Amino acid sequence: MKPLTLLLLTTVATCTFLSNLRAEEDGKLRIIAFGAHPDDCEFKMAGTAVKWAQQGHHVKLVSVTNGDIGHWRMAGGPLAKRRTAEVHEAARRIGTTAEVLDIHDGELLPTLDNRQKITRLIREWNADIVIAHRPNDYHPDHRYTGILIQDSAYMVAVPFFCPDVPPLKSNPVFMYYSDGFQKPNPFHPDVIVAIDDVFEKKMDAVDALVSQVYEGGALGSEETLRQRHADNPIARREWATASWQRRQGRIADKYREALIEWYGDEAGKAVKYAEAFEVCEYGRRPTHEELKKLFPFFSE
Fold first, then answer.
1. For the chain, is the Cβ count within 10 Å smaller at the N or the C terminus?
2. Cβ distance 102 to 108 under 8 Å?
3. What is the Cα–Cα distance from 298 to 300, expressed in whole angstroms?
């Protein structure tokens, strides 16, 4: 064996050992979620993120693009900085970590370079769970985020792909956010989490995303500002709360049978607000009991 190859193998093995040792010493779950834009993770799973964080688990929410065209009256660097600040404020409010990648909004592609970026982030976080959009979605950035996560599902454990970052000892569980798209296949709720007890904490995160929630993002207008009371913090929070009650309530109602399966008949029927997730078959395939350990909320 050539000296350089031997050195690389030794370095990878040592880094892998140290990385896994840190996770074992901590004893907490490590969750990394990817959203196409600075708001997607928060909208889709902030409630579940709060529940993990409250138990001391480590949650990182990554925006794969910087959102720099996601507004109707501003764009470019100023908007990217504004939206980055918004997700960092949301993370501060709910006890998670945030990162925004410097990729232009609307221009994400499933390239080798981006696959390497995603793989490195998953490895660096030493993830137990990885969550992202499904790859059938209305927005190209959402679709390609899903594809990039799928493309990383095997590569995170391959030592000589991105050998500068230690590979994971085992493949994480990869999962999808819920959505309403039916073709080529509808979303299936493998896990559904009641968020009634943390709904207001989720709203704290949503409330921080002013450019999107109260100003309407890319498709907003002056009328949006008026309708959503953008200049009145109290009134606009009330508007957002009512909107998200309907949104999370629809998920709870749509997947009521899954809620009953996870929480029992009485508790499952009583849930008002929920977030749901589907297991991606490309990562590790957990049993029902393993999912309970990864989502350790059902015994509370």
1. N
2. no
3. 6
Amino acid 176 reads: Y
By CB neighbour count within 10 A (0-12 exposed, 13-18 middle, 19+ buried), where does 112 fall? Answer: exposed
Q: Which token pair is 110?
A: 């499933």
Q: What is the pLDDT of residues 179-232, one digit of tens each?
A: 999 999 999 999 999 999 999 999 999 999 999 999 999 999 999 999 999 999
For residue 11, name the pLDDT band (cuts at 50, 70, 90): very low
- Nearest 5°: the CA angle 284, 279, 102 is 90
Q: Which amino acid is at 236?
A: R
Is residue 298 in a domain? Answer: no
In a domain, 110, yes or no: yes
Cα 101 to Cα 1, 5, 190: the distances in Å are 38, 32, 29
Number of domains in the chain: 1
CB atoms within 10 A of CB 219: 9
CA dist 29 and 48 (Å) reads 13
Q: Where are the alpha helices (DSSP H) in the chain?
A: 3-26, 40-54, 76-94, 112-125, 140-155, 199-207, 210-213, 222-227, 233-254, 256-263, 265-270, 288-294
- The CA distance from 197 to 254, in Å, is 19
pTM here? 0.91
The range of the structural domain enclosing residue 176 comes to: 3-192+277-293
* Coil/strand/helix, residue 78: helix
Q: How would you class 63 by CB atoms within 10 Å of its CB: exposed for 0-12, middle for 13-18, buried for 19 or more?
A: buried
d(CA 233, CA 211) in angstroms, rounded, equals 13
Query: Does the residue 123 lie in any domain?
Result: yes
- With respect to residue 164, please indicate whether it lies within any of the assigned structural domains: yes
Helix axes 40-54, 76-94, angle to 10 degrees: 20
CATH code for the domain of 43: 3.40.50.10320
